[in-house]
């Protein structure tokens, strides 16, 4: 193991125990505030949407109340769409993009589809600008009923009454340079594995469900986002983050097998967005706008398909 790949917690080749997790937590600082950045925007939206408290996370002496916003009134005769942001709390445009969609574009879809939006699924991670939760657990690999992520299990309980009605779930993410410099190194150390260097795609891309990719749907989103920011090209092997590119800016993962958020509704149309805020070709505002464009394009496409 080379010096550049060594992570300063744990013993190379050995998985972390509780002592290492405590040490890791000690390295995390509260860098921004969920109660100041996110909750006031949710509160201001409560005059247009139903504000739904759907859980509480208690970590040491910190408590985070979780909120979603839903169409009001909710029409049981209409299909439903789920928009999630901040499953990885450090991915800022996922959170801001979800809120910005509600503030600026959600009204365009009123009385056509029921919207359920969870803007910040992982507030502890949002505050620490971290991929993991308090327990060094990745929520987006633990969406299962018996999983170790309260962020995931609370969201799964929220959607339970609407299962069977969802036509769409779009999960808003971003890929940053710290994926390579920090989080993949931490993952390798936590799991007792060797860190293998990778690369960060420069641009927007989507992660579709390998079992049912719905490529025309994915292409419609990419086409809409291309007017806002650039689309990530494949590497020399025709891949993005090690996965074959199946259409411009589209790769696939087995969402359910990986315990990913995008698998929880059983909706026929699902996708996970990824923007690149560290690109010299994109601004934070463009990344937020790209998320909004992706949500709108996804909704437009699904509504154009009727009940198909």
UniProtKB/TrEMBL annotation:
<keyword id="KW-0378">Hydrolase</keyword>
<dbReference type="Pfam" id="PF24827">
    <property type="entry name" value="AstE_AspA_cat"/>
</dbReference>
<dbReference type="GO" id="GO:0006508">
    <property type="term" value="P:proteolysis"/>
</dbReference>
<dbReference type="GO" id="GO:0008270">
    <property type="term" value="F:zinc ion binding"/>
</dbReference>
<comment type="similarity">
    <text>Belongs to the peptidase M14 family.</text>
</comment>
<keyword id="KW-0479">Metal-binding</keyword>
<dbReference type="InterPro" id="IPR055438">
    <property type="entry name" value="AstE_AspA_cat"/>
</dbReference>
<dbReference type="InterPro" id="IPR000834">
    <property type="entry name" value="Peptidase_M14"/>
</dbReference>
<feature type="domain" description="Peptidase M14">
    <location>
        <begin position="30"/>
        <end position="308"/>
    </location>
</feature>
<dbReference type="GO" id="GO:0004181">
    <property type="term" value="F:metallocarboxypeptidase activity"/>
</dbReference>
<dbReference type="GO" id="GO:0016788">
    <property type="term" value="F:hydrolase activity, acting on ester bonds"/>
</dbReference>
<keyword id="KW-0862">Zinc</keyword>
<protein>
    <recommendedName>
        <fullName>Peptidase M14 domain-containing protein</fullName>
    </recommendedName>
</protein>
């Amino acid at each position: 193991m080379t010096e550049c790949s060594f992570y300063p917690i744990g013993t190379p080749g050995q998985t972390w125990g509780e002592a290492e997790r405590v040490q890791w937590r000690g390295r995390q600082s509260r860098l921004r505030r969920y109660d100041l950045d996110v909750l006031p925007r949710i509160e201001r939206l409560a005059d247009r949407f139903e504000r739904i408290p759907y859980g509480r996370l208690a970590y040491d002496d910190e408590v985070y109340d979780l909120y979603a916003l839903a169409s009001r009134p909710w029409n049981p005769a209409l299909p439903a769409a789920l928009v999630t942001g901040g499953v990885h709390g450090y991915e800022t445009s996922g959170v801001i993009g979800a809120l910005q969609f509600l503030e600026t574009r959600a009204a365009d879809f009123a009385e056509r589809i029921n919207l359920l939006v969870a803007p910040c699924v992982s507030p502890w991670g949002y505050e620490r600008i971290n991929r993991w939760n308090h327990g060094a657990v990745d929520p987006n690999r633990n969406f299962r009923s018996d999983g170790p992520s309260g962020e995931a299990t609370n969201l799964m309980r929220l959607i339970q009454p609407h299962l069977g009605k969802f036509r769409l779930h779009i999960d808003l993410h971003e890929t940053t340079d710290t994926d390579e410099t920090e989080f993949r190194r931490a993952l390798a150390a936590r799991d007792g594995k060797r860190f293998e260097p990778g690369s960060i795609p420069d641009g927007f891309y989507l992660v579709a469900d390998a079992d049912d990719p719905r490529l025309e749907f994915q292409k419609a989103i990419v086409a809409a986002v291309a007017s806002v920011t650039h689309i990530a090209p494949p590497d020399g092997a025709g891949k993005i983050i090690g996965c074959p590119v199946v259409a411009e800016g589209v790769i696939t993962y087995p969402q359910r097998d990986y315990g990913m958020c995008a698998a929880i509704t059983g909706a026929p149309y699902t996708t996970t967005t990824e923007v690149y805020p560290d690109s010299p070709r994109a601004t934070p505002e463009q990344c937020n706008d790209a998320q909004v464009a992706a949500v709108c394009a996804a909704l437009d496409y699904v509504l154009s398909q009727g009940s198909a």
